[in-house]
Amino acid sequence: MATEPGTQSRVMFQAPDKTEDSAHRKLGKLTVKYNRKDLQRRLDIEEWIDGQLHLLFDCEEEEIPELEIDIDELLELPDEGQRTRLEELLQECGKPKEEFINGLLYRIKGLRKMSGPLKK
């Protein structure tokens, strides 16, 4: 569609609805709940776990048995319970796993459990 020279197109914007805006702001406040350093430390630990599992199972990511190491679950357990739980999770692994378990337990020392969503 051709326009004649000298005529300009106009674009009109509508103002956002107030209820939508306040819901967006509430969501923004929820995302700053956790300390950035704690989140980064947790991410570093999870990446370390992922790399170590690749070494333990000596395979590609798709071939690793379905295994979920829940850091928060471990933090709820006493020290010996943490070790026992990790040994249970890694029972299918044929390689020595003591170094991995000791490394993970060392890394999660001092880490705080992340709370789930608050219920109203």
TrEMBL record:
GO cellular component, one term: cytoplasm
Keywords tagged on the record: Acetylation, Phosphoprotein, Protein phosphatase inhibitor
GO biological process, any: innate immune response
GO molecular function, one term: protein serine/threonine phosphatase inhibitor activity
Pfam family, one: PP1_inhibitor
InterPro entries for the chain: CPI-17, CPI-17_sf
Family to which the UniProt record says this protein belongs: Belongs to the PP1 inhibitor family.
Record PANTHER family: PROTEIN PHOSPHATASE 1 INHIBITOR POTENTIATED BY PROTEIN KINASE C, PROTEIN PHOSPHATASE 1 REGULATORY SUBUNIT 14B
Name of protein: Protein phosphatase 1 regulatory inhibitor subunit 14D
